[in-house]
């Protein structure tokens, strides 16, 4: 270990439940608890929420990428019958303050633009009307006079912009939002000692999650209590009152957030506070409850959830024997017009930036660039999907320059199974893993040797067939310091150190186990995994577990499904809750059985005397007696009525960053590992890529439900295939977003998915989480881009095509082939 | 994304529909609605009057009139795609439907509506030119016939005048022994074409004759590729000939040049796809 | 514009309604009929979430006007089956994990239902083609395809059972 990491001491494990065989419910593919109501159309999504007297909002959006608002005339719009009110940014500012920001120092952002718009789609006025049709009629009548300003579209050019092209001239003199450098370990010395430095310029372009449901809010202002009741489809509802209370000028406790079933997030609905603030403000101004559901165009152009958009200049220091010494890069990231989470996604990536390899030091300079695009937000991978790709591109490049087999080079540098917990140069640890076993299983499943022979045969026929391999990390269960650890040291911002997950659980007098979650469902399976874990621990039938969701006033300690954290974290809360319930059940049950608590055990939903049949009391009997027959039990608060508990589980393993940022501490330690292998054929004349075969092996620790984990891997892989081959936000020189629709932003359909996908799992349990569970919600997208890129480059190896940018759509790939062919002709 | 208000008319017969179109010059005809309604939802189209022809049963037909297949204004893609008559007499049309939209859209959308929408990247306008179809445009006081090659005049523009309705398209059955080919590249299967080419030809004494070829996605509207046709006519088929003709045709095109899909790329696709379509057509020709 | 009176059958029940001509079928179903199972994902006819069956045929409800439904038979996801009466296709989606967030599911069910009515024993390619107009961002489609294959089996078996002599 490098000396800079010496102060980062790994705390002892707090794991109570060891992974073990012979579990009854954990590890079973039970049918999801959530499904029947969803399958029958009764899921309860945001647009299903109807509140008495509710009006609908429609927005007036900027057609320009960058412009001053000279004037807004709402008079015609206000005359439309059925219109309740028409409001501008200035109107909204009478009841709300600017949006919160995790960046330090922040870039100010208003939920509705006031003097200036900074991207196409930014809202400048809103209509509240009886229905959405009327609201849109009126919105079309709002007249805005614009003074168009120069638009910044290119990431490098925007850094040079001056004068009117600067987005936030009052706060920053240029479009550079932040420029921070980091070095972890002896980067300079390692580079000086290296035999060779591999250099690549790599580009990852902008796209976004585009869940099939857009974001939406139903907000009510209570003038008597001075608070809001808000339904919104955010992942983040328990915490969000504390994030936006200030903007709404109410205390967080006066903000009641009610969760709804969310129609897909993939990170994109974590930070939807802008439209929550916007809708709440409109409800207050209009004096009626207001519903605002983004339409698809608004979701594309204004949802603050665009993905990473980065340009890397990357260097990998290697020795002639193939061992990696150090890596460093400068990255420009096009953040769009605002900066809601500061260093954000780059911090996330620091959790696993050196991949599964032994690399002794790491350096990074990150420059956040402001441009006239909608700002970034979280998206499956949260930046780590990009660094995975960068790492794997660099390894492929090293293999090529060293004349080595890419797979063999990976194996040579991989962390060995006996080296865990393994601390990487940034200070994060990899808790456990067996990368070699994952790779071995993938190789076998994919039949790599046969594929390599097939590739040789196809090449001999002049076909462009290739295979690609990616061995990547899938960090999960983020710790709280991820949010701010990279902020500058002078103003680090809100340095929170908690990311808890909690539940409350109660056995009611009928014997049912009622559980309340503090996190919502976004397409994950919270009810199913909690049911499985509690059924396991309390020996109850899953059919007797009933799951509900708290609102933000009745439940608090929940951060929600994001960063592949929920299952591992809620498992901890379930263990705590069940320990407490078990103790209470035994205390009451033993009293009823006239035994000592230590003489009884839980058995099939009963408290039963150890070693004796028929000496038992059902949970229903115990709960009923404890709830309704207080005088049957002794005095004393240990026999207080009822059978319930509340449990909170804190992050199992995180440490503070080093005060001088020599390392970042442990902040994302529960790591999975993935290996994807793919075979493709490229049509060199059209640039079309066909996936011939695909194998994915994931290690997500102990699996709670194999089928639902499989669904996450499959779906993430589909997402990664789209990211690689077809999905890109395309802007023209004026900053117009040219393809904000589902016809042109091409997410994969069933036709684009490989027909013979093979899925495998290795289970290396975490030594730190309960049962050894790790997260698994992002892995597909964390592996697919690397493997596919590698396969495409391999298929075109004979033509000298290098892939340094994603996506590689057919027009882009054909362009690369055309250029390579021309270069080959020129060289002859 | 909600449509602006309009006045709705639902005539039960063709004369009533044509009378409505005469009375309301800015009326739009609603057949399948699969192109019109999205444009209305975006408010890119805001007709004051909508004439819904879905109850005019007399327009819902596919029939053979000796050597001509006649398809009425209400014949839906799905019906055409699965019609035994089309499979037998116009196999290229049946085949091309594999690239056109998706099931639920084909269930509602009509061929005539698709042709009137005249999306430059849509496949059927190109195929109608290969097949030398005729468009029958009816108005309250008469009808006229317009050859496909004259019907498509620009992006979303056709020769149809205000007050007219495309009531049927008349497609000559290819002569016996004809071969055909159709090739397309789009981002996803079912998307609009970045480039699509269709062709029909015969072989007479070892030479290509009656060569017809058209393309979608490579101009303001679907285009007949006369240059290729002329280069091949009377020549024996060969890979070199196809490649040269396709190359020359591609060079002569002025395709749309957008940030995502360049004109060069679309030309490359013509170079790639035209020979493939021709090779397939030769293989199918007897 | 004046509202138009329409009569239609909704999930087997006769209904009457007054609709403004511009009201999209999707909005009519969700708001006037108060059947929230039909989901609106894009309103430009690409995602397929709003697919419903009109006279047994799967259509995009965001690309039709409610007024066009006069006299028609409409089936939404609520017409498939309820909590204790899941339709075999719903059951198969449940068993095979054919849904995650569930937002695309009603449209998928409509597409699957139409396919299986026409093609009781579809190939994988036919299943892919049938659902290619329905975007799903969660599943990667594989378990949806498996669910439809399983549903086909269930429906075929049900048919065999009902035709056997008692």
From TrEMBL, chain A:
InterPro entries, sorted: Ald_Oxase/Xan_DH_a/b, Ald_Oxase/Xan_DH_a/b_sf, Ald_Oxase/xanthine_DH-like, AldOxase/xan_DH_MoCoBD1, AldOxase/xan_DH_MoCoBD2, AldOxase/xan_DH_Mopterin-bd_sf
SUPFAM superfamilies: CO dehydrogenase molybdoprotein N-domain-like, Molybdenum cofactor-binding domain
Gene3D superfamilies named among the record's database cross-references: Aldehyde oxidase/xanthine dehydrogenase, a/b hammerhead (3.90.1170.50), Aldehyde oxidase/xanthine dehydrogenase, molybdopterin binding domain (3.30.365.10)
Matches recorded under Pfam families: Ald_Xan_dh_C, MoCoBD_1, MoCoBD_2
Keyword entries, A-Z: Molybdenum, Oxidoreductase
Residues covered by region (Disordered): 1-22
Domain Aldehyde oxidase/xanthine dehydrogenase a/b hammerhead residue range list: 40-150
Superkingdom field: Bacteria
Ranges that cross the membrane: none
Protein name: Xanthine dehydrogenase family protein molybdopterin-binding subunit
Organism the protein comes from: Roseobacter sinensis
Automatic annotation (TrEMBL), chain B:
Gene3D superfamilies named in the record: 3.30.465.10, CO dehydrogenase flavoprotein, C-terminal domain (3.30.390.50), Uridine Diphospho-n-acetylenolpyruvylglucosamine Reductase, domain 2 (3.30.43.10)
Ranges of residues in domain FAD-binding PCMH-type: 1-176
InterPro entries reported in the protein's UniProt record: CO_DH_flav_C (IPR005107), CO_DH_flav_C_dom_sf (IPR036683), Diverse_Substr_Oxidored (IPR051312), FAD-bd_PCMH (IPR016166), FAD-bd_PCMH-like_sf (IPR036318), FAD-bd_PCMH_sub1 (IPR016167), FAD-bd_PCMH_sub2 (IPR016169), Mopterin_DH_FAD-bd (IPR002346)
Pfam families xrefs: CO_deh_flav_C (PF03450), FAD_binding_5 (PF00941)
Identification of the protein by name: Xanthine dehydrogenase family protein subunit M
Signal peptide per UniProt: none
SUPFAM superfamilies registered for this protein in UniProt: CO dehydrogenase flavoprotein C-terminal domain-like, FAD-binding/transporter-associated domain-like
Keyword Iron: no
Species this chain originates from: Roseobacter sinensis
Source species, domain of life: Bacteria
PANTHER family cross-referenced by the UniProt entry: XANTHINE DEHYDROGENASE SUBUNIT C-RELATED
Swiss-Prot/TrEMBL keywords: FAD, Flavoprotein, Oxidoreductase
UniProtKB/TrEMBL annotation, chain C:
Keywords of the record: 2Fe-2S, Iron, Iron-sulfur, Metal-binding, Oxidoreductase
Coiled-coil stretches noted in the UniProt entry, renumbered to this chain: none
One Pfam family of this chain: Fer2
All copies of domain 2Fe-2S ferredoxin-type, residue ranges: 4-80
Identification of the protein by name: (2Fe-2S)-binding protein
